[in-house]
Amino acid sequence: MKCPACGCADSKVIDSRPVEEGNSIRRRRECQECQKRFTTFEVLETVQIIVIKKNGSKELFDRTKLLSGLLKACQKRPVNAEEIVNEIENELQNSLTTEITTTEIGEMVMNKLKAHDEVAYVRFASVYREFKDIDTFMAELKRLQK
pLDDT tens, 37-61? Predict the structure, then answer.
């Protein structure tokens, strides 16, 4: 960080504090050259994730939509839906992918649910895979048993 007084790139941090509910950090610095003090703010930069829907339209990733679907599938089950949404959101942020399809998100959810709770997995799969009849439902159950 360059000193605003002399332009020197060498400074030391004197004090750091979280601000705005922990979403940024305020740093008090001192220039190593002229000893002037100045303040900088460090903010976490997140990637805007665009979701490509089945009809081709695009919208911003909305964790509340994902959480809503998971809560329905996990109703009365010992599954922490919020934790699964956090895991998926973190994976998306860490992948640095800017666009993802609903199919890819659905598969991520299915994999997480399969590991956590098979009943919640089948509930989610019945809506996500659009089971048309009992045969497709039974085929999924048999696949799960293997």
Answer: 999 998 877 778 999 998 999 999 9
The rounded distance, in Å, linking the Cα atoms of 81 and 136 is 26
Residue 118 contacts residue 99 (beta carbons within 8 Å): no
Token pair for 129:
């895979």
State the DSSP code for 43: E
The token pair at 35 is: 């000893």
- Look at residue 136 in the predicted model and tell me its pLDDT: 76
Q: How confident is the model at residue 3 (pLDDT cuts 50, 70, 90)?
A: very high
Question: Which positions ≥6 away from 144 have C-beta within 8 Å?
Answer: 114, 118, 121, 122
In this structure, are residues 51 and 101 in contact, taking their beta carbons and an 8 Å threshold?
yes
Closest CA to 72 of 8, 124, 137: 124
Which structure tokens are listed for 37? 């003090």
Whether residue 129 contacts residue 136, with contact meaning beta carbons closer than 8 Å, is answered with yes
User: How much of the chain exceeds pLDDT 70, in percent?
Assistant: 98
Give the H or E element holding residue 94.
Answer: helix 81-95
User: Any idea which residue has 């085929």 for tokens?
Assistant: 139
